[in-house]
Known about the structure:
The chain is of the alpha+beta class. It is built from 5 helices and 7 strands. The chain has a 4-stranded antiparallel beta sheet, with no helix packed on it. A hairpin with a 2-residue loop joins β3 and β4.
Amino acid sequence: MLRSARSSYRALATALTLAVVCTSPIAADELMGWFQLAPEAPDGKTPFAVQGWVLATCGLAEAVVAIDGQEIWRGSPFTTWPGVADRYPGVDGADRAGFWMQVDPTRFDVGEHQLEVSVAACERRQSVGAATFTTLAATPLWIAVPMLALLLGVLPWVAGRWLARREPSAVELPRLQPAIAGLYLSVAAIIVAAPQLAPSVIAVDGG
């Protein structure tokens, strides 16, 4: 009689435990993800990519990218990511869990910055990981323009003079000089105007 009662209690306890585990919202609301920088070590002057995947077992997830604690990008995954669908079969969104966005380091102050990626779903947010990148000071125009003048103006002119002396019939120097000058002026104008005309890629809505 006593053994039968103990067996009944154990069976009841096992059933209650299984019921709690199966209905537990914590077990059902799992947030996960992974990311990387491309290239892994940004040079501090050119844009770099933040790419990876995010997933939630309770519904569709969003990827959130923040720099120095300020959210700069939030978007739904929009591309496939190798291995995610096979690792999490049956999870909604696993076939398109990948995301990609671009960061322009020159849009931030010179120095080191903290980048963090999070996954948002189920009315909560969970960090996926963090990385650091450094913004370097841009080359001043008073240095960049003379360098371009040397590369696009002086050196071709010297090369043209040298060719004209060796093969006078093959090179017509007076015709080359306006072309060289026009090329130099065009590049210089692009350098001066680019910072004012280029849009910020981090302002583009993800996806």
